TrEMBL record:
Subcellular location: Nucleus
Gene Ontology molecular-function annotations: DNA binding; DNA-directed RNA polymerase activity; metal ion binding
Origin species: Rhizopus oryzae
Gene Ontology BP terms: DNA-templated transcription
Primary location: nucleus
Protein name: Uncharacterized protein
Length: 365
């Protein structure tokens, strides 16, 4: 395993960096990265100049998930405080995962909940992802160690996959396979779930070419919970564990076994103490990694941009400048509510805004 010493970092956040989203083409330019933090801010970075070009401040809560609009002509950015969100390919629907185990689908044309899933996870739903190439497919993962496939046109579950192994390992006895994140390949063929038992489960649902579900467990790449995933290519996956270890997995399409070991492993050293998020992207025919997490102290953040695939990771510097600050107050909010036996509790606030605006939009509520 190769140790990777960071060379430079993107500086600006005053707290742990929780989430990232990359956009190749957006309303504010090409190759931009949004980051959300426990410091109640969001930064937007130009990855060509390696500078922060927008600072979204005055948020009342940490930013736990961020998404650029799927269409470049839409000047919209979606932030959440709570669990993760996702947008479908047409930018018509937004999915939220909530602490009551439900998945909510918001119709962005009416700003109202389109569908709430009829069944739910037994405990917290950590993440929800739309499946590319499948218009009505949404997948979710939860702290009940289950992955659900939903038909959100009806709000009903299609399949439930148990992440517990038939013969639990010693790691699973002490670290159950809670589902922390999901990633889906761009062709929609593979769904990957990162698990608390230090493994990753790959699922390939039935298709026209294959009438059976294919499952592959990715083993021996990590020794602590896996909490972030990113597909580099449809048949190549990058995973990150809380302890800063990276693993690259490949060729699972051709696997004839139920388990696979990693193709490569790396340990990220330096100023990142814990991984929270990984994002991979291609620029100028090179593959880059954005790694976000906790710095050397629990109160500090870390955000690196890396270029790897020659057995090392070279990191680029991006000094933070305030840029044009956006005031998030007065902008449109979506609210997903959960019903508890004795009260209604607001658990998700989605800030929906136009990054091109330089002043407060007083016409919205």
């Amino acid at each position: 395993m190769t140790n990777i010493e960071p060379l430079h970092e993107l500086k600006g956040h005053k707290g742990p960096v929780l989430t990232l989203d990359y956009s190749r083409i957006s309303c504010i330019g090409e190759h931009v990265l949004a980051s959300g933090s426990e410091d109640n801010t969001c930064r937007i970075w130009d990855l060509r100049s390696n500078k922060a070009i927008k600072g979204i401040n005055n948020l009342n809560e940490p930013v736990t998930s961020v998404k650029f609009a799927k269409k470049a002509n839409l000047p919209l950015l979606y932030l959440s405080s709570g669990n993760k969100i996702d947008l479908n390919e047409s930018n018509k629907f937004l999915a939220t995962a909530d602490d009551e185990g439900c998945v909510n689908i918001i119709d962005l044309s009416s700003d109202k909940i389109y569908k709430k899933t009829t069944k739910k996870h037994q405990t917290i739903c950590m993440t929800a992802k739309f499946r590319p190439k499948k218009s009505w497919d949404v997948w979710s993962g939860g702290m009940d160690s289950k992955v659900y496939e939903w038909d959100f046109s009806r709000g009903s579950v299609t399949n439930i996959y148990d992440m517990n192994a038939e013969e639990p390992s010693a790691a699973q006895m002490f670290n159950p396979p809670f589902v922390y994140s999901l990633a889906i390949s761009t062709d929609g063929k593979w769904i990957a779930s990162s698990l608390g038992d230090s493994t990753i489960q790959l699922i390939s649902p039935p298709s026209k070419k294959s009438k059976t579900t294919k499952k592959v467990r990715l083993m021996n790449g990590h020794n602590s919970m896996v909490n972030c995933l990113s597909f580099i290519e449809p048949n190549k996956l990058l995973s990150g564990a809380a302890n800063g270890k990276l693993a690259v997995w490949s060729d699972f399409d051709n696997s004839t076994t139920s388990t696979i070991d990693p193709a490569q492993s790396f340990q990220l050293k330096g100023n990142i103490h814990r991984f929270n998020w990984l994002e991979t992207y291609e620029m100028d025919e090179k593959v880059y990694i954005a790694a976000a997490g906790v710095g050397l102290t629990p109160e500090s953040g870390a955000l690196f941009i890396g270029n790897k695939w020659d057995n090392y990771l070279s990191l680029l510097q991006a000094e933070y400048t305030e840029g044009e600050a956006l005031d998030a107050l007065g902008l449109k909010r979506y609210c997903c509510r959960r019903m508890v036996l004795t009260h209604v509790d607001l658990i998700e606030k989605l800030l929906h805004y136009n990054p091109l605006e330089r002043t407060r939009d007083r016409g919205r509520s």
